[in-house]
Amino acid sequence: MARRNNRLSVGAGPTWTDVFRSADAGGADGRSGARELLLSCAADSDNPIEYRVEAPADPADQQARLNPGEAARIRGANQFIRHVVMRGVGGAATGGVEEISF
User: Is the alpha carbon torsion for 78, 28, 64, 48 positive or negative?
Assistant: First the structure.
């Protein structure tokens, strides 16, 4: 897990890789959570990335996809984002997360 690292090695699914977990969710990233994060799939990634927010929980089996070179800004509208996971689609991928606002 990393607070500012968009070059993480993200394993292929079906398992998920932790990319952000706040202290409130039992991790070492940040304090109680983030208001806003930038998630990305590196332009030179061999494969796309799927991501989901674990806390607050996205509905079961709901995830979003980023193709190589794409990024998504996510916000915790009324609550902090505390846990985000990613997995490579079709094989290992490169991507990550950067804090925008705590």
Answer: positive
56 DSSP assignment:
T
The residue to which tokens 């977990």 are assigned: 21
Query: CB 8: neighbour CB atoms within 10 A?
Result: 20
DSSP string over 15-82: S-EEEEE-GGGTSSSSSS-BSEEEEEE-TT-SS-EEEEEEETTPPTT--EEE-TT-EEEEE-SSS-B-
Structure tokens at 97: 């997360």
- In the chain, count H helices and then E strands: 0, 8
pLDDT for residue 4 is more than 70: no
Predicted confidence (pLDDT) per residue in 44-92, tens digit = 999 999 999 999 888 888 999 999 999 999 998 788 999 999 999 999 9
Contact 89, 48 (CB under 8 A): yes
